[in-house]
Specification:
With about 575 residues, the protein is mainly α. The protein is built from 22 helices and two strands. Helix content is about 65%, strand content about 0%.
């Protein structure tokens, strides 16, 4: 009974700690935000953990969560006490207060992970879990952005929700000036939302679950495999950890390169934070920037090395984790092959089909779109928006950057208001196609576009099936591709109609551009976002969520039943419909 009461105390204390963190971060004048109180809270929670760990009646998964959270808390406590008594001679400094606050935030994240595992057991619909995670994160983010310490001046709920949704859905459309309207804390909150939205809360919780001693349940594996867009449930947990670790590694390398490219340019008052922010924003394809004019700002507009770094981060984030891991496997096996041949005088046999058909389609389509897009921007904007880039290589780099960012992120290095109509229409096409499956980008996806195009060519040649690289593409994949295309066009068309009705004075082309950008989570704009009515902003919010989650996933989440459908047990005679 004693141990049960300790567990109950912890269950009550957790939401109180969460509220304490919110008040501590949100209000600078919060009286109870001092080091002594934080040390007392962390110490008390740690002691409760010790008592619970000695309870033999607790379930294994609960004790593994308690062990992990206790380890995190005790490490930060040892660090804090060590610094207080060994280095500061008994004095408590602000960095100790911040480190202990971070330990409480990590504790809350671990508790959220455990809560999500309980939700997995209760709810049997992976798509519904996926939807709820993004909606919840958007609402939580809007609340955090409305805290007094997050903004320079008070903002409305609709603007906070729009900014939060744009960050969570890694879009980049903004109704406020990120540089001027948000404080340092507000920018950090936006950055965290971008990271959580890019990776997905299911991937993050899976990463923490990796450190639970009881491992992963089969149901959790199904949910995460749905999010990561893989067919098998084997090694899902390790794949989720690989995704998180790979993301953090690439973002760290990107931060270093960005810092080296701007350190002598007077780009920002805090070059390190600028580098971290833009590295995460670029890899997650969000398009958020700490500069008022984005990357079109004078300080980085002609920094071509910086633009190339951002462009490659965009491409890496938008090509898909499965593609990257498959490509790295191919490179590793190639190195291994030559190593065996040179040093061991042996022939190393490749496994069959190392590079998958999916990888080949995505890489070829991405390469074609990047190449064709670069040439198109160079030709169409040579005498217009590219005229301010005087050098030959400057024009090509700006064209390449525009081709890369149009499909995935909201960055721009050319004047969007001076684009030719043909360039605007071409940009809409690139935004609609978007990034690749299982990536941080949006759109209908490159593989969907490629399958639909190749199926049209196959039908034109009189074939009744689609064959690529001596493999027949399943009819389910083709039907899904055309369903996604049709659903996207229907949603986009309806959204344009609604916004025209709500904002009749706005230009049709600008509205269409805005809608395609929101649905494809591209983030580019012709400058009308902030001047739209609240109703139109709500439409764009819904579009961003639909674009990030996927219209088809939303329909599955609300319409699909868990029971085996009766249509598996019968088939009707085929009927032909005249199509001309």
């Amino acid at each position: 009974m004693t141990q049960i009461r300790f567990r109950n105390f912890l269950e009550i204390a957790t939401p109180i700690i969460f509220i304490y963190i919110i008040f501590s971060l949100g209000w600078k004048t919060f009286l109870f935000f001092n080091a002594e109180i934080i040390i007392g809270i962390v110490l008390s929670i740690s002691i409760l953990h010790i008592f619970i760990l000695f309870d033999h009646n607790s379930k294994r998964d609960y004790k593994s969560m308690i062990s992990l959270s206790f380890f995190v808390l005790i490490v930060f406590l040892i660090f804090s006490f060590g610094k207080i008594f060994l280095y500061n001679k008994g004095k408590i400094t602000d960095d100790i207060k911040i480190s202990l606050l971070i330990s409480l935030i990590l504790y809350i994240l671990i508790r959220v992970t455990y809560f999500m595992r309980i939700v997995y057991v209760k709810i049997h619909n992976p798509a519904f879990i996926f939807i709820i995670s993004f909606v919840f994160l958007s609402l939580l983010g809007s609340f955090l952005l409305m805290l007094p310490s997050s903004t320079v001046k008070k903002i409305s709920f609709i603007d906070a929700l729009f900014t939060s949704t744009s960050a969570v859905c890694v879009t980049g459309l903004v109704v406020l000036d990120t540089a001027k309207d948000f404080t340092y804390l507000g920018k950090v909150i936006i950055l965290i939302l971008v990271e959580l939205g890019g990776l997905g809360i299911l991937t993050i919780t899976s990463f923490f679950s990796y450190f639970f001693r009881d491992g992963f349940s089969f149901k959790e594996a199904i949910f995460v495999s749905n999010f990561l867009n893989i067919k098998t449930t084997s090694n899902v947990l390790s794949l989720a950890v690989k995704v998180v670790m790979f993301t953090l590694t690439v973002e760290s390398i990107g931060t270093l390169f960005i810092y080296l490219s701007i350190k002598d340019k007077n780009t920002s008052d805090n070059p390190l934070f600028f580098s971290i922010f833009h590295s995460i924003s670029a890899f997650c394809n969000s398009g958020f920037s700490t500069l008022s004019q984005g990357l079109y700002s004078q300080s980085v507009r002609f920094n071509y090395l910086f633009q190339l770094i951002i462009a490659f981060l965009l491409i890496l984030g938008g090509i898909g984790f499965n593609i990257l891991f498959n490509f790295f496997t191919y490179i590793w096996l190639t190195i291994k092959k030559y190593f065996y041949r040179i040093f061991k005088d042996e022939y190393f046999h490749y496994p069959a089909h190392v590079v998958t058909l999916n990888t080949q389609i995505v890489v070829i389509t991405t390469f074609f779109l990047l190449s064709f897009g670069t040439i198109f921007y160079y030709i169409s904007e040579y005498h217009s928006s590219l005229s301010e880039h005087y050098s030959f290589y400057g024009k090509w780099i700006a064209s390449f950057f525009s081709s890369a960012t149009s499909r995935t992120a909201g960055f721009h290095v050319i004047n969007m208001n001076s684009l030719a109509p043909v360039t605007i229409l071409f940009t809409i096409l690139l935004m609609w196609i978007g990034a690749s499956p299982a990536s941080t980008g949006g759109g209908i996806k490159t593989s969907t576009f490629a399958l639909a195009l190749m199926n049209i060519i196959s039908l034109s040649r009189g074939k009744n099936r689609l064959e690529i690289q001596r493999k027949e593409i399943s009819s389910e994949s083709i039907r899904l591709a055309f369903s996604i295309i049709m659903l996207s066009l229907i949603v986009i068309y309806m959204s344009i109609l609604i916004i025209i009705f709500l904002d009749p004075k706005k230009d049709l082309l600008s509205i269409s551009f805005e809608v395609f950008s929101a649905f494809s989570t591209a983030g580019l704009s012709l400058g009308i976002t902030s001047s739209l009515s609240n109703g139109s902003k709500l439409v764009l919010i819904c579009l961003m969520l639909l674009g990030r989650i996927g219209v088809f996933n939303v329909m599955i989440g609300f319409l699909k039943r868990n029971k085996i459908s009766s249509h598996y047990y019968y088939r009707y005679p085929k009927g032909d419909i005249l199509i001309n």
